[in-house]
Inverse folding.
């Protein structure tokens, strides 16, 4: 029975492809793929059909499907292109086989038509969807790793002074990472002063403030001093509104000021290089004439 | 009321989405940078309370008009355990989670109007408004 259907489908593949193309062309206008060039759309559709027929012919070979899904992913087309396309294929094929059967009243036969078309299409859908979501999952996990790398950098700018610039949203996981890196780094770099720069933190709510306070207290416990820098005016106002008490911490508006006071704490200061300035040299030359 | 937008809070990252939307709306209405930060912080607090205590809920946003004034109204709703004594949580420093205990009283100070209803076992609704100056 099943081979009979398969024969019908394979022998009339041109007609089915034509029907499918007409249907899919309508899909293009009403949804997602409108910004795709007609030529590319047509050629990809043709390839899609080839993949499906090859798979049916070869009893579910997946190699072509894999290549095709890779291509669609690279093109960045939506998953719905694939799922809709296969739905249309299922409908068209069932219609076609039914219209080619002599005995239309045999419900058993109709059932087996549906059954065998499903058997062809389902593994393809499964494979394509898996490939697609696998690709997303991979992207998400890569981005998570990338984000983690960015999340709590510690820069030993000079002997005994370390800076931790924070950029972006701080969530619980990141707060933990900040604390760990901060303490580990302070000990590793033998820092006396740690500057936490929050210029890039968009919102400081009670949770973020709480984590920063805890981190500063922990740094204090291991014998270093923590200065909170980069507090923007609007953040200062929201911190005051929230009623968060930061009076126990040294804070500075900018990293520059924080760095100056860090130098002061470590008994150092910035001194211009020795030697006369250019203007003085010129003046000397003029005087000597 | 008929909220114009709504963000569901299920995960910690939804808090970011919620305050992003709030900040955008505030910007559109014409709030100053400071007020945008206030609104974003208030949303952050409300969303975090939902995430911490009720597990899930939603925050609705509405632009409201009253006597030629424009304002942004936020409604945070959840079906969590509820708050047994609202006046207690409105005190600074009261916390059950080991935090700073500045969340709700902070929101009240950040915004212009603040109302909270809660029923044990049924959930909590907090409505708060910031008027454009």
């Amino acid at each position: 029975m099943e081979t009979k259907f398969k024969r019908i489908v394979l022998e009339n593949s041109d007609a089915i492809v034509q029907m499918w193309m007409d249907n899919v062309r309508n899909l293009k206008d009403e949804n997602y793929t409108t910004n795709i060039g007609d030529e590319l759309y047509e050629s990809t559709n043709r390839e899609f059909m080839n993949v499906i027929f090859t798979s049916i012919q070869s009893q579910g070979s997946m190699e072509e499907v894999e290549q095709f899904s890779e291509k669609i992913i690279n093109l960045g087309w939506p998953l719905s292109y694939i799922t809709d396309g296969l739905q249309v294929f299922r409908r068209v094929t069932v219609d076609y086989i039914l219209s080619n059967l002599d005995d239309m009243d045999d419900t058993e036969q109709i059932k087996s038509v549906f059954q065998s078309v499903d058997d062809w299409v389902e593994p393809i859908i499964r494979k394509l969807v898996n490939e697609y979501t696998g690709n997303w999952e991979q992207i998400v996990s890569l981005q998570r790793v990338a984000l983690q790398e960015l999340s709590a950098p510690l820069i030993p700018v000079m002997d005994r002074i370390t800076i931790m610039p924070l950029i972006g949203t701080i969530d619980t996981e990141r707060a933990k990472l900040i604390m760990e890196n901060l303490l580990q780094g302070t000990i590793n770099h033998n820092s006396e002063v740690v500057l936490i720069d929050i210029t890039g933190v968009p919102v400081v709510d009670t949770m973020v403030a709480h984590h920063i306070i805890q981190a500063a207290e922990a740094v204090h416990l291991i014998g270093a001093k923590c200065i909170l820098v980069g507090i923007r005016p609007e953040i200062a106002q929201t911190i005051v509104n929230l009623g968060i008490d930061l009076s126990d911490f040294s804070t500075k508006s900018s990293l520059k000021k924080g760095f100056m006071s860090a130098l002061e704490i470590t008994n150092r200061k910035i001194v211009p290089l020795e030697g006369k300035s250019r203007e003085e040299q010129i003046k000397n030359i003029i005087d000597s004439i | 009321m008929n909220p114009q937008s709504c963000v569901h809070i299920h995960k910690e990252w939804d808090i970011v989405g919620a305050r992003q939307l709030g900040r955008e709306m505030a910007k559109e209405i014409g709030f100053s940078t400071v007020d945008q930060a206030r609104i974003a912080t208030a949303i952050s607090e409300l969303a975090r309370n939902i995430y911490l205590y009720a597990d899930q809920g939603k925050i609705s946003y509405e632009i409201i008009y009253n006597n030629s004034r424009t304002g942004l109204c936020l409604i945070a709703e959840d079906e969590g355990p509820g708050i047994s004594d609202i006046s207690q949580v409105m005190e600074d420093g009261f916390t059950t989670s080991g935090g700073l205990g500045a969340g709700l009283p902070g929101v009240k100070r950040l915004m212009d109007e603040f109302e909270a209803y809660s029923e044990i076992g049924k959930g909590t609704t907090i409505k708060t408004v910031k008027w454009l100056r």
Notes: Residues 39 and 262 of chain A are 64 Å apart (CA to CA).
